Structure formats: C-alpha cells, structure tokens
Amino acid sequence: MAYQREVYRAVEEQFAARRRENESERQRRKDEVYAKLPRLREIEREIAQTSIALTRTILRGGPVKETVKKIKESNMALRAERTELLAELSLPYDYLDVKPHCRRCGDEGFVGGRMCGCFARELKKAAYEMSNLGGALRDQSFKNFKLDYYSDEAKVTDGKLTERELMSKNYETVKKFAEGFDTDRMLGLLFFGGPGLGKTHLSTAVARELIDSGHSVVYETAPDIFAKYERERFGRLDQPGDLDQYEQTDLLIVDDLGTEFSSPFVQSVFFSLVNSRMIHGRKTIVSTNLALKDLSVRYGEKIISRIFGEFGMLHFVGTDVRAQKRRGQTRR
C-alpha cells in the first residue's frame, strides 16, 4: 500500500525546484536592497562570521560561554540595525529571509522525520494525475453516484429485481470492494453492460478512494494497453518501464475491453497480465460493453473462466445515463 516510485520522485523533484526558486528569489531581493544600502551586505557578512568565530573558539579550547554571550549580543545589535535599514526602505524585517510555500517544513516535505501535510497533498495530486483519470477523479465519486437514473419499475432479465435494485447491489459491492481493498480476498471486479451505465463512474470512485488512502492506481483503456505491449514486442516502446505500471500498481483499471483489435497476441497479453496480477495478489477492475457470452467467444472460455473465477461479476443495466443527463431526465 504505497504510491508508485514515480509519484514520490515527481513530488520530490517538485519540492527541490521550489527550494531552488525560493533561494533564487531570496538572492534577487538581496541584490535589490544591497544596491540601495550596501551596509546591509556588510551586516549579513558580519552575522555569518560570528558562527565561524564560535567554531574557532571551540576548536582552540577557548572561553566558549563568554564567546557565545558576545556573539549573541553582537548578533542582536546587527539584526536590530538590519531591521532599521529595511524599514528605511519600507520593507519588512524578514524581507531577506527565504519565503517557502510551507512555513511548517520550509518546503523540505518533512518535519522531524514525519511527512508534512503539504507533501502528502502533493503526493495525492500527483497520484491523481498519473492515474490517467484526470478531472474524472474530482467529478465522480461514490457520493454523487445517483440511482435515480435507473428505473424502479423495469425488471432485469431474470425478472426478480428492478434495474435500480440491481444497480444498488452493484453500488454496494463496489463500495465494499474499495473499503476492504487491503483485507478482502476478492481479486477484482468485472463490469459488463452497455455504454453509459455507470461503469466508468464507479471505477473512478474506487480509484479516488484508493488514491486518497495512499494506494497506487492506473487507469488505461484496453486498446492502449495492448498497443504498448505490441510496441514493446517489436522494440518500439519509448519508455520500457511503462509496462511495469500495469503489473505493479495496487489497482489496475482496464476500460473498454473488447474494443481493441483481436488477435492471439492480445489474448495472450490479456491473460498473462491479469493472471500475473492475481498471482501477486494485485487487484484489477475490467470494464466492457460486451456480454459475458461474447467475452467467452472473443477470448476463449478457458481464459475467461480462469481469470474471472476470482472476480466479482457485475451486470450494469438501464438506459444510457449520459444521454439522460444531457436531457435533464431521471428514471422513476
């Protein structure tokens, strides 16, 4: 349960850039005031020299207490003079100090060996971006998944449940999957059903919950995943490490399965990827517009039964929710 190395690396680089910018801006302010009042430069040098004098006293075995007392008095006088000179320029006393984005950690990201809240927030933001879900993570959650778009009268194929009742069960199953991600033995979920029925919304809701709790999530369409494996096969993949994310992320979301060009190679990659993740206890959500029988025809009964024997199978039903939203409708 941890963000990917790439997430940490990106945020560490971001904080290093902040510190460089802070120091650069500080130097700009120094150059500005030194040009107007050269005495300020002299004061900074004198303050810096006091620490050197103390070090020399300690190394020579001299009177440390007396030296410290003199240095404190000297520094207080120098700082007071600096404050007065800055005031002459209508500048605050700390104008020459570094101005970090976060005063708590000084843009170091850690305080006393513990992660600062600012670093944690940037980690989450970076994880959102690297998940490939972008703005959907802000717009789609469990809280705003509305069952009103599913009919409370129309029965699903078995005639036992209405569309809304079935989708309510699906919602609870997916929410439980997210909440018990680290403890539940279920290794994945298969969402199948027509387009616009909430599959991507609930996938995103799971991703949001997991990223917020410090897990790594990667979302990718099936065609894009298989295209990268195809390029890797022929040595044309720009970043070979791109495939590692599919195998190592805590949760992989494979969307639009069945829209890719079908071939024995694709079938092999699909089986190997999901099977490898299952062996290592890593979970996967697969979403498709195909019916189960069509999946079996396309990928083979053996592959489907092996992979999805460990998955929760959720049938999404109803009328295209996106179309209903455009028309401003809900179901009754």
TrEMBL record:
The biological processes this protein is annotated with in GO are: DNA replication
Q: Where are the transmembrane segments?
A: none
Domain AAA+ ATPase per the UniProt entry, residue ranges? 185-308
**What is the designated name of this protein?**
ATP-binding protein
Q: Which residues form the signal peptide?
A: none
Q: Which InterPro entries match?
A: AAA+_ATPase (IPR003593), IstB_ATP-bd (IPR002611), P-loop_NTPase (IPR027417)
| Keywords carried by this UniProt record | ATP-binding, Nucleotide-binding
Any GO molecular function: ATP binding
Q: Does the keyword Acyltransferase apply?
A: no
This protein's source sits in the domain of life called Bacteria
Q: Which organism is it from?
A: Feifania hominis
Enumerate the Pfam families for this protein: IstB_IS21
